[in-house]
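Translate structure to sequence.
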């Protein structure tokens, strides 16, 4: 009888220990899940930004990792530079305005190229000949494996005269450096070592 009582006590102790361990594991699981859920909720809330609209109402905006958009911003930066630098009209003020905006996006290498063309009378011929020049960027190839980033741009240049239209193939290369964002440089890049590696006529058609 005494042996049976001891056996019952030992069984009860094992059961209590089992339930105790199970309860401890359950509590640990609940705590870990609660902490993980709280962390996820806090991260989700940090992605939300509330913007005051004219001092009257709040608008919800979502934040995003800046690095995710850098390749897109880099290509758009280079594309915008080419559109400003190579799109010309027979108007001195318009040319100078475009050049000023383009040179905010690049270093002295682009300025030197502009001065060289200016000294050769290229822009004066655009004005006197009533010539319009339009550039269409086909693609921008950026290598982001090394810094500064190597960029090659492929574009088509249209030289529009009263009598004919000449289409040119334009290929340039440069390097991209990270820079401070500003109103004049919203993407935060600077083009350096700008160079034209190909600029030749493809077709000429009469108008």
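Result:
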């Amino acid at each position: 009888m005494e042996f049976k009582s001891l056996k019952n006590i030992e069984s009860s102790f094992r059961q209590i220990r089992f339930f105790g361990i199970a309860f401890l594991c359950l509590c640990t699981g609940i705590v870990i899940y609660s902490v993980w859920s709280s962390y996820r909720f806090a991260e989700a809330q940090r992605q939300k930004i509330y913007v005051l609209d004219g001092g009257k109402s709040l608008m919800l905006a979502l934040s995003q990792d800046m690095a995710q958009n850098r390749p897109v911003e880099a290509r758009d930066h280079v594309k915008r530079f080419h559109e400003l630098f190579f799109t010309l009209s027979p108007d001195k003020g318009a040319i100078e305005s475009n050049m000023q905006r383009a040179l905010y996006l690049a270093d002295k290498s682009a300025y030197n190229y502009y001065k060289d063309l200016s000294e050769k009378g290229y822009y004066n011929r655009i004005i006197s000949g009533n010539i319009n020049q339009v550039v269409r960027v086909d693609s921008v190839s950026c290598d982001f494996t090394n810094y500064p980033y190597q960029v090659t741009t492929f574009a088509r240049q249209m030289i529009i005269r009263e009598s004919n239209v000449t289409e040119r193939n334009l290929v340039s290369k440069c390097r991209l450096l990270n820079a401070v964002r500003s109103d004049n440089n919203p993407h935060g890049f600077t083009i350096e070592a700008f160079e034209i590696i190909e600029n030749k006529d493809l077709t000429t058609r009469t108008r």
